[in-house]
Amino acid sequence: MSGTRFFKFVLLCLTIAAFIYLMYVLFLKIKAAAATISFMPIIITSAVVTCSVICTAVVLGLAICFAIYLMKPSKVIEGEQKVTLDDVILSDEIKEELRMICNDISQEKKVMFEKVGFKPPQGYLLYGPPGNGKTLLARAVAGEANISFESISASELVGKYVGQGVYHVRNFFKREKKNAPCIIFIDEIDSIGAKRNSIGHHTSENCNKTLNQLLTEMDGFNFNKGDLTQKK
């Protein structure tokens, strides 16, 4: 848990402790006042106790839910810095081309493209052996364009059972459309996107359906919605 989350958690615990203490003090004062009344002291005391218990239970329940939320690991790596093209060793010509791409996917260019009805490329294919910096390059493009970056392995989109892969692909793109404009980096896409297999086994059929859904989502992931897909 990060320092900020830990501070919030400690502050929450102190707030709960203060609330319980105030309820206890209030209970003692009302109990003392009820003792001086000759009628219905038991009813008043019972009502105060019941309200105190209910309020305390509600606050503790909310505190537990909030604590669980704070304990959940963040998707953003702590200490991760923004990466731009200046952090990547490339030739000046390649950097210039990449900056043109970043300019094309910027919010300002999006408005201009919508006015003239122009539709730029919807995705880019990064090819190369493992470890040559494809992920870093995609992250740098996102940082240069100042848009969000989401990386996912193609294996995470494939399901074990028929229809599961289609469900994963549909939900993933549905979630990322809410984060647009963004760059989606699909790692090892060739594991499911190389070619369609011959139907003859339920595994091949499942892969084909997953691939078809992926192609459908990528085709509908157009620039007018501020989305961009990169494949590795």
Automatic annotation (TrEMBL):
GO terms for biological process: proteolysis. GO terms for molecular function: ATP binding; ATP hydrolysis activity; ATP-dependent peptidase activity. The chain crosses the membrane at residues 6-27, 39-71. Signal peptide: none annotated. Keywords: Membrane, Transmembrane, Transmembrane helix. PANTHER family: ATP-DEPENDENT ZINC METALLOPROTEASE YME1L1, METALLOPROTEASE M41 FTSH. The lineage of its organism: Bacteria, Pseudomonadati, Pseudomonadota, Alphaproteobacteria, Rickettsiales. It comes from the Bacteria. It comes from Wolbachia endosymbiont of Oeneis ivallda. Residues 120-227 form the AAA+ ATPase domain. This is AAA family ATPase. InterPro entries: AAA+_ATPase (IPR003593), ATPase_AAA_core (IPR003959), P-loop_NTPase (IPR027417).
